[in-house]
Amino acid sequence: MLRGFYTAASGMIAQQKQLESLSNNIANANTPGYKADQPVMRAFPELLMQQMGGKELPVTREFNLPVQNPIGSLNTGAYVHETVPNYQQGDIRQTGNTTDLALVNGELPDETGSLFFTVQNEAGEERFTRNGNFTVDGQGFLVTTQGYYVLDQAGNPVQTNGMEFNVTQDGVLQANGQNIPLGIAYTPNANDFTKEGNGLFSGEAGAIPAGATFSVQQGVLERSNVDSLQSMTQMMESYRVFETNQRVLKAYDESMGKAVNEIGRLR
């Protein structure tokens, strides 16, 4: 009986976490470069149930042989093992703003590989983002909407001295007669990255390998890869499973109530 409580409760907790993840995806459906989270469910280890008994052997002296008859496996619930971002590229949307940039993946040598803009967070640490919704601050530096410096290939903040600049498809920013290669990093396995919020990722990334093709487009943004319709459908399914576990938990509670208040009552 108590095991049923824990199984139903673990199912409710797992569905609640999935609902939170899906809600966050829908809330960021219009965030440029946002990568949808995908909760990964796993089951707790199953238990093998056996019936324990004995069998009398037809001998002169009584002899009882212990016997175990397998009944079957018993599932002990499920849980959210981890949340994995979907790094599939989003659609490209035209904005017309010269400070908006988008990374368009071409042929990459690794199936799980991805390209990122390199930025500097408030602690001065190197981070990565797919959100190219940039602007220029009061000192003429190219920054994200949160104020993080966009870095060049040498790891220095990019100085544009204004909104008028051009970015080639190779990722070279042309301003004030200078050519500044943007810090575009590559990772062979984007699943090793960790989300930090505000569109930032942390992890190990390096130079773009030979054979990889990509382009940097100016005046456009990469949209979120969230499928709002699919996410809403998954939310409804997850909520129904949550309600089912809730009803099971209520049934167990009522049974326990009867066991305590009725079966054990002296008449």
UniProtKB/TrEMBL annotation:
It comes from the Bacteria. Residues 5-35 form the Flagellar basal body rod protein N-terminal domain. InterPro entries: Flag_bb_rod_N, Flagellar_basal_body_rod_CS, Flagellar_FlgE/F/G, Flg_bb/hook_C_dom, FlgE/F/G-like, LlgE_F_G-like_D1. Residues 113-174 form the Flagellar hook protein FlgE/F/G-like D1 domain. Residues 217-261 form the Flagellar basal-body/hook protein C-terminal domain. Keywords: Bacterial flagellum, Cell projection, Cilium, Flagellum. It is found in: Bacterial flagellum basal body. Belongs to the flagella basal body rod proteins family. PANTHER family: FLAGELLAR BASAL-BODY ROD PROTEIN FLGG (PTHR30435:SF19), FLAGELLAR PROTEIN (PTHR30435). This is Flagellar hook-basal body protein. It comes from Virgibacillus kekensis.
